TrEMBL record:
Originating species: Diplogelasinospora grovesii
Pfam (any one): DUF7704
UniProt keyword list: Membrane, Transmembrane, Transmembrane helix
Domain DUF7704: 13-149
Tree of life domain: Eukaryota
Transmembrane regions: 16-40, 60-80, 92-118, 130-151
Protein name, as recorded: DUF7704 domain-containing protein
Length: 161
């Protein structure tokens, strides 16, 4: 009979700062984004589009969808990643989140007229900087976790039951 698989402890392998950013800071940002999209969708739209688009009430369902996605992120990060001390699970979930991050980053560029407009930093508004700094550090930490950068290779093993 094969011996039970051994999971590498995420707590032992992932630096505290990475875990703090992913399981504490980002869920707060995600809940904030959800509340903004649920209760103030026009403000969200203006923030993302440099005030170039007008909010239309019939599109409210899209903001509800977006808020739901952010609540899912917050739940996975604040609850699931704390419940399961498994580096492999962390990496798989971070890979999925990176897919969402890539779509979100592309949507940020679309919101201001495309990548050509987005890369002109001199045109950035305070909101653009907030969106960037409210996204980039979290995305970076996920990429570092997936790539194994800063991950302790001799992290303790935890027996799976």
């Amino acid at each position: 009979m094969a011996s039970p698989a051994r999971a590498v402890s995420a707590r032992a392998a992932i630096p505290y700062i990475y875990r703090f950013i992913i399981t504490t800071l980002e869920p707060l940002f995600a809940v904030n984004g959800a509340m903004l999209s649920f209760f103030w969708p026009a403000t969200y739209l203006h923030t993302m589009t440099r005030h170039s688009q007008t909010f239309s009430a019939p599109t409210t369902f899209l903001y509800t969808e977006l808020g739901g996605a952010w609540l899912y992120f917050a739940f996975v990060e604040a609850v699931v990643l704390r419940m399961f001390d498994d580096l492999g699970l962390w990496r798989v979930l971070c890979m999925g989140m990176i897919l969402s991050d890539l779509a979100y980053c592309h949507s940020c560029a679309q919101a201001v007229g495309g990548w050509g407009a987005w890369v002109v930093l001199s045109d950035w508004t305070v909101e653009d900087w907030f969106v960037f700094w409210g996204t980039a550090p979290f995305l970076l930490v996920r990429v570092l976790i997936v790539l194994g950068v800063g991950i302790r290779q001799n992290g303790g093993a935890v027996k799976r039951e």
